[in-house]
Amino acid sequence: MAFKKRPEPGLPTRKQILDFIQNADGPAGKREIARAFALKGQEKIQLKALLKDMAEEGLIDGKRTAYHRMGGLPKVTVLRVIDIDEGEAIAVPDTWHPEDASPPPRIRLVEAKGKRNPMGALKKGDRVLSRTEETGSGWRGYPMKKLALRSEQMLGVVEIDKSGQGWLQPVDKRIRQSSKISDLGGAEAGELVLAEPIGKSVRAAVKVTEVLGEPLAPKAFSLIAIHKHGIPNHFEEETLGEAEAAAKLPLSHVDREDLRHLPIVAIDPSDARDHDDAIWAQPREDGGFDALVAIADVSFYVRPGGSIDREARKRGNSVYFPDRVVPMLPEILSADVCSLRSGEDRAAMACHMTIDAQGKVIDWRFTRAIVRIDEVIAYEEAQARIDEDRAGANLQGLWACWKALAAARKARDPLELELPERRVQLDAEGRITEIATRERLDAHRVVEDFMISANVAAAKALEAKVAPVVYRVHEAPSREKLVALKDYLATFDMKLAMGQVITPGLFNRMLKDISDEAEKALIMEAVLRSQTQAYYGPRNAGHFGLALGSYAHFTSPIRRYADLLVHRALVDAYHLEQPAPKGDIPATSGLSERDREDLGRVTDAISKAERRAMEAERETIDRYVAAWLASRVGEVFQTRITGVQKFGFFATIISLGGDGLVPVSTLGDERFDYDEKKQVLEGERSGTTYAIGQILPLRLAEANPLTGALKFELEEGGGRIEPRGKPAPLKHRGKHLVGNRGRPANIRHQGRGKKR
């Protein structure tokens, strides 16, 4: 062997392992690696997890008896184009699994010197066989041959025509064309299925690979989103077994602060299944407050490198649907052992804060603690106790402290946009009973301001130790978006000086000065569109929306992997380690070496997972809203225009939030011109205008629960939305109305009050 002396004690680095494998003059399996680095007990368990990670990253192969160094990407491999940057294609390895926590390398495809590109222009989604090399400025790929498109799963509903031919009707509203089914795979008309193309052309036939069941059955809409977005929703036996073992870890009092005497309360939604956080506050003699935010100590149970941890990294966060939760952690942890239940001893990470009379957090400290939650209270109940003057001392203390925090928030002047949240209420069978906007109470603001204060304290505590931080970053609007906003505001005779410092308060004052509610809604929509999307990252760029210089997510480790990483960083920085007892549980609860080496990899992955979850949740709500409205086609609703394009405008029902299109072809006989700068459609003869934010009554013309798509038409006059193709006779499949080819009825309006 190449190593002649005992290396430094502890788990070897990736580089040390690669060097050992490269220079070994015999088999280099797990046993040989452990012997070479004199690893024992827990270190061997950590080595096993590290080798698995390295195999997933492509650094070594997966042969346990004798690992071999992969040396990065193969010299020749298949790449998939994901973006076009200034005319050049950007690709990633086609076999790199998107759910892997470490993102694939981005490869810029270029022409080899002296050789012409054999394929011409490439576009997103293309697959190419390419030579690859790593240069000082990143990876380069030299295309050799374009390959057939890889088969991808499609989600849709089976239709059967009169000849008995099967067709797949996609549930994605962006796909308008049905696909011919060559193999039904046992599926029947009207069933929701997964299918994949079996040919190379765009219009290739498909074969059914999995039958999912009745598309309009209760709880089907979330299942559609889960499959469409590839959200992991099953835990492997290894992960569940590790969770069972972790749940049995004894809650030791050693090195834990005992806070069970404090009347800490958790204020959550009435239907919450897991409770990440609980709060407490009491007045100080100097007019300030002592406050505590207790957060579930997930890092004690979920150790880096274990199976639970790897699965949590892939998921990135829990995904919440009206009928179910796809949790980041197995239920025995998320809804039981880690959840801060009332009356039970629980492990917590405690953020102690000293808050002055003006609401400024002037001191903080972090400890690992044992808490016993005094009570879990719904937001509505907590608010009612305050309003009806029947709140106990614990709630009174929280509200008194919050008033100081609220004053500090007002002085900070964060961005204030009224963004109503839709709430879908279901009965025990999963049927919709109500859809409404969620009421915003002071109780929500109390919890929110305590959480924000703890998140700021966590970020600054880590900065004070020069420790790694997973920041929650919300950058200021880009110049491009500000110029677009400036041009739009000019149509209202409003000015936005580009030379001034852009702050959230600037937008707040702009909105405050508008008295006309319709115009205010227009400007609010424009301001919202100008904002950037928040993300996680290891480099601090501040949080523009909250008007904060340093911000991290610390308060929800049960449902967000970013928060778990912040907890682990605090464990390391403030020496809060509590080793697990001997067994299969990894010893450390701090950050792994992998995350310390490159925190950017995992923050990129969890930012993408967050966007995936947001899209899935939004689409599912849209489907529920469409299902709720399907029986109300022909009714007139008060709507607000949310987007304008040359082909029509989009509007949302004010009371429900359902979004739909009004095609320009239905606006009447006159021609409508589109002003892109003003984002307005204007009638050539009448001068009638349709602009973002405008409130107007519209008649619901179509509601499709499968896609979540709605269509509207003007209340009076204009054209009518006609069905595409000849309408099929309707029949029943179970409890649901379907067409003669087995598809769920796409209800359209033909004449006032009539349904087809």
From TrEMBL:
Say which domain of life the source belongs to: Bacteria
Q: Which reaction does it catalyse?
A: Exonucleolytic cleavage in the 3'- to 5'-direction to yield nucleoside 5'-phosphates
Q: Does the keyword Ribosomal protein apply?
A: no
Q: What residue spans carry the region label Disordered?
A: 717-756
**Gene3D superfamilies, alphabetically?**
Nucleic acid-binding proteins
Domain S1 motif as annotated: residue spans: 634-715
InterPro entries documented for this protein: CSD2, NA-bd_OB-fold, RNase_II/R, RNase_II/R_CS, RNase_II/RNase_R, RNase_R, RNR_Ribonuclease, S1_domain
Query: Which HAMAP family does the protein's record reference?
Result: RNase_R
Described function:
3'-5' exoribonuclease that releases 5'-nucleoside monophosphates and is involved in maturation of structured RNAs.
How is this protein named in the record? Ribonuclease R
Please report the organism this UniProt entry assigns to the protein: Novosphingobium mangrovi (ex Hu et al. 2023)
User: What lineage, starting at the top, does this entry show?
Assistant: Bacteria, Pseudomonadati, Pseudomonadota, Alphaproteobacteria, Sphingomonadales
Give the gene that encodes this protein.
rnr
